[in-house]
Amino acid sequence: MSEAVAERNAGVVEGPIASPRELMPYAIFAGVVLMMLVYFVGAEEGALSLIGGSSVHELVHDARHLLGFPCH
Amino acid sequence: MVRSLLIRGMLVGLLAGVLAFAFAYAFGEPQVQHAIDFEDLMAAKAGAAHEHALISRGTQRTVGLLIGTVAMGVALGGMFALVFAYAYGRVGSFGVRATSALLALAAYVTITLVPFTKYPASPPSVGNADTIDRRTLLFFAMIAITVLAAIAAGRVRREYAERLGPWNAAIAAGAVFVLVVAAAQLILPAVHETPAGFPADVLYRFRLASLGISATLWLTIGLAFGATAERLVAAQPGRARARRAGAAA
Questions:
Q1: Residue B236 and residue B134: Cα distance in Å, rounded?
Q2: Of B56, B54, B24, B38, whose CA–CA distance to B121 is shortest?
Q3: Residues in a beta bridge with B237
Q4: B67 and B175: one domain?
Q5: Residue that wins the pLDDT comparison between A52 and B80
Q6: Which sequence ranges are marked TM in the entry (chain B) (predicted)?
Q7: pTM
Q8: Which residue in B59, B213, B236 is closest to A66 by CB distance?
Q9: How far apart are CA B50 and CA B182, in angstroms?
Q10: In terms of residue numbers, what domain contains A67?
Q11: Within a domain: A60
Q12: Could you tell me the residue range of the domain that residue B102 belongs to?
């Protein structure tokens, strides 16, 4: 019984889980890498072109349209 | 902690991307094909040479679509995990799963739904290639404005919760959000690039499918991430001690 109550209490918020200092390196590094991923799906060889040609654009063409990014 | 959350977020995003692919393949692809057929018909009428695709349509609608949705899922899942790591315990006193679900709902509304009312998803042949730079800029600007408006609204709610009471503070926050978004939508230029004769039904179904794909992504991320993060947060050393102390008392 007390075990079950303790389990439920574990769900209660006890304040933040990560300090800004702890978060910062991840936010910068992973943020940039993940934004690049969004960029390649959403805008490479459209408004901007890093690689050149149109193979990335064509490969993710359908996803780009269906995910709502401007295309063509 | 942040590292584990980030990895889980990206894995959950992978799953979300696969589910979004299934939804997109079933509901989106038929409309994309209708739109491309229209484009080819118009090109043939204009006497233009058939554009030879670098990558076949068969690859685009299967492997290409999967790569696109999974990459998007992983990216959104990872960024979601980082936002969650910051928001949990700071924004309201919701539990892990509720924070995750509400954050995903907020993401869907501010990143997809509200910007969509100004610059909706468009199938092939809707949209002029010459305006792609401008449209891309406007699209991301609308998303940025909407997200910032939501963050501002959240601040207003917390700031005035005690003075005005929870209901009135929430209404004030909602008003701030709507006013900022409405002003932005009135000021930003409209995009009218649907070619004459483009089937309205295809456009409607394509846009509905697009909203469904994003809903699949965010729903999966919000619910699955909450489930996996709950165990992680509960198992955190500091929290386990607090839990034992609570059980002993």
A1: 47
A2: B24
A3: none
A4: no
A5: B80
A6: 63-88, 100-117, 137-156, 168-188, 208-234
A7: 0.89
A8: B213
A9: 42
A10: 18-72
A11: yes
A12: 2-126+198-248
